[in-house]
Amino acid sequence: MWAYIARRAIQALFTLLIITVLCFILTRLSADPLAQYATNPNMSTADKEALRERLGLNQPLPVQYFKWLGLAIQGDLGNSFFSKQPVSLMISQRLPNTLKLMFTYEIITILVSLVLGIISAVRQYSLLDNVITTFSFIGFSMPIFFIALGAMLIFAVKFKEWGFPYLPTGADIWDQKDPLEYIKHMILPVSCLVIIGTAGYARFIRTSILEVLGQDYVRTARAKGLSNRMVLYKHALRNAALPLVTIIGLDIPGLLGGALVTESVYAWPGMGRLFWEYAQRGDFPVVLGILLIISSAVVIFTIITDVVYTFVDPRIRLS
Amino acid sequence: MKKNLYILLSLIVLASMALSACGGGVVATEAPAGPAATEAPVEATEAPMAEPKSATGAWSQEPDNIVPYYTQMSYAIWIAQLTLVGLAEWDDQGSFVPELAAEIPSAANGGVSADGLTITWKLKEGLKWSDGEALTSADVKFTFDQVMDPANAPLSRTGYDKIASVETPDDLTVVITFSELYPGWQTLFTQGPNNAGSILPAHVLAGKTALESDPFIHQPTVASGPFVITDWVAGDHMVLARNDNFYGSRPILDTVNIKFVPTPETALAALQTGDVDWYPDFSESDIETVNALEPAVHLKVVPGADFEHYFFNLGTTAGVDGKGAADQDGFCPFKDVNVRKAITLGINRQAFVDSLLAGKTTVPVSQWPNSEWENKSLTPATYDPDGAAALLEEAGYALGDDGIRHGDCNGEDTKLSFTFDTTDKQLRVDIALAVQSDLAKIGVEFKPNHSPAGTFFAGYTDGGIMPTGNYDMAGYTTGFYPDPMPGAIDSFSCDTVPNAEKPAGANNYLVCDPKLDELMAAGNATADPATRKVAIDELQKYIYDNYYVVMMYARANVYGYVDRFVPGSFGFFSNMNWNAEVWDVK
Amino acid sequence: MSTSDMTILKAEPIAPPLTPQQLIWRRFSKHRLAIWGMLGFGLLLTFIILGSILVTDKKANEVDLQARLSPPTQLHWMGTDSTGRDIFARMIHGGQISLIVGFLSVIFSVSLGAIVGGVAAYYGGWVDTILMRFTEAMLSIPSLFLLIVLGKYLGRDMQTITVFGQSYSGSVAIVIVVIGATSWMYLARIVRANVLSLREMDYISASKSLGATDVRIFFRHLIPNTMGAIIVSSTLGLAGAILNEAYVSFLGLGVQPPTASWGNMLTSAQSFIQRGAWWMWVFPSMFIIITILCINLMGDGLRDAFDPRSTRHL
Asked: I need a surface site. Which of A158, B124, B253, C26 has the fewest CB within 10 A?
């Protein structure tokens, strides 16, 4: 197994290299760093030419790329074009907030979907199943900006108006070191994300469990006298874990990128906002730094997921 | 097997915990205790105060850094208005008033020399920085030195590069000598919403190089404005405290918080719950929404000096007299002034001002709306679809079967069907639709195309739509103030048409008209406002008569603030931050 | 003996065995929610198709500033939007676009995902390596950039596409391609995981030793046995594509105005929510929810119907 991991690690480096080239090209093509000064009367033509020169934007693209790569390999992600701060500092300031938000969301989603998925599968077609199905789909079908804004309007604005205990909008100044305040401010954003995420996971869990429950060996186990609960735990869950492991493995790297819309609506200082705000300004050191971190996470977690497969399903052999 | 699995899972869990623990919460940047120390003695002598007064504002973007020479973001300039001062500023009436200076230099008081090349500023007495150090002419000289120092990389040296020397005969006097006449001298070393020539502290920054990367631009240690930054939590908020050494009246608020809120709907909700006291970034389309929240939330609409305009691609590959050659020829029918006039007359500008902008702003007549430079003898053309249709008929464009006019242009049969490019903001989308509908009535097909701002404003080397001449009509907002000419010259002259030799040229209209250049030069030839006004009036009339641009509406600043907050006064030109020292809460 | 005795001994007519298609339909029709879903979706399709014929897309784009932001009236059944366009007409044409975007992008992404995942798992070795590394690369590239870049370079040349007499913004094609190209990775990984298990099964080695070609094994055995995951993925993917379109519209990169889509209608509605213009968001969101609900219920029914081991008794 360790030989396999070592091989994968080497492949990972090549993959990352190609990913960085692609991301570099896309980033440079998508926005011009000087676009924000286009209508600014204080920046004369001469000023803009000087700025272009200083940022190294006049050099051919491959040169710019290799310069960035040279530094990145040594661990230096460069400085933001405009704020001049080190990219790694900017990321480290916002990453913990994103991680706290997104991991809370992921854990709650997994737990809630497990419960809902199992109930749905075990009581297939019952009223409970139908209700769970319908409500989880309704939650799933609303665009995030809609749920986020709606939840804020109801639970922060209207509840306060009507005299009920209310939640903060997120636009208030609050002490991030106070755990109680932190939890209060996380409730709305995490709930919005959970409402949407649960349906997807729950459907997959339900499907996998149903497929397992239909198998012959489950019928045999039941015939042998094994209770439903034991069937569930000993067989169904174990074998239904494979798709779940897959999607969790795919989702975790995405968590690092934060949730752009949720963070914007709730004024949460996270990675999603950092990415979008600086991407629009064409500040490509920041954007490439973030993409590098996310791609590294994608590659690493794919390796982890593949290794975990062998534990979950002994029939799978890694080539 | 199972043991390996558990080990692996624990590693994963540990790794994620480590990731989330690293950094351990958001890193706050704290300033040293200087400002707080100077506050305490003042507080002790006051009568027992009620609880500290604090107000929270919401801005939609975070400044990239906060020293004006090293950033051009408006949000950074707003911070500069709160924490730094210049020699003078513009008040809510648009008058130029002294801040650090004792009075405004003029010919009468000897501050402006006879040839206009030497300006003498006299500072007030007893000026101090927030840490107690004296603020003297040495700071002004240092500010000039750091802008021009080749070891520093300010974003713009425009104007400062026309200064030959800055002398400081004594602590309170600054003598600035220009190498050539610079009518815009008032924008140097002074602060306004669009120019920040704040005076920097020599005692903190002298001797340092590469100021663009100095920690001071993110963690300023001293201030001269009404407030001092005490905390900046990246991506989240800033906290400012009163600066007791502020030269003017004692700031009333103890603390000002600025929270960064990217979504206007969130800001609106926060105003309703009182989480936030004011939000200055509403768009004109939010006017009715904010108005509906009175009396808990107050709306303030202040017409500004910026304008939204639509313009024609007037580029010619030949240029004029060897200058101003664009990469592409503009849409052929636009060469005819009557076609441009017809399009202008065919757009019902007042209708969308009344409906989409709640009637709270005006259709401007020139590039200097609401300001003292405006040519008041001109009135905006009224909507006249019949007249427009007649003009197009006369110009040779007859209605085709598909309802679109076509006619001969330069030997080719051309349909009056063209694209319009702009950004994707909702208001722009709506207005473009209204214009499309208006122009369809006179037989012109107007096809709006929206791109994100980073794409739309891309420069020549990035294949930007406007510099490469890849557009027919386009539209955006800009403004030419406080000095009326530099921006106009950069935007309209033959010398700044973007092409391979001049990729950074700002003349997006691609227009090259020698008469225009002549008039603009006249407007910049003297410092005397009266003479300038005559020349600039003529310039406005010329652009107006030639229908080079379609002036759509004067941009307004839309503020929303809660009842408990007492802002200062709002000027059309000075935004609400110019007298932050009088802000109060009920 | 009398003939009556013979009649007692006559055998009962035996019904012929059900074909697989009939079996599937039988199982499907027992799933009550799925039937509701199908009915609902049918009604929706009728509304949109009939509506497109009766209400022209010119009407959907007719600007009338005087009538802007009016609530539902006799003249405008669902009210008007911020420039006075009739929301009912826009719901019809927007529905067309949203469904087209949804279906086409899902067909694209599911086909690509199933094939990539299946082939990678079945052949293993360097095929698996290359395909999976390619999958990782696509996972790391944000779709937002692809949208911006494609929109920049293709958007201006593909201003309008005319199909069946109706003109659509070229951005529809761009959105379909980008959503399709950025959502297949999930299914690829899931199918790969399933096939990795399945390929060790006895009946696969039996098939091989009997001389079945790889293609036959692939399409006859492997894919049908991952049908459950594929169907769930497709139905979730369709919902995802419609929502994805709304999300990118929110960022200004989706279907470009003036072409309507439910997604960009919701986006324009958000600045008017707090003004009380409920009709601007209630209708698009209701329709989106109902569409996605119906599609997923049908998908549920399909999944159960295709699974021969479904525990439901017939």
From this structure: C26
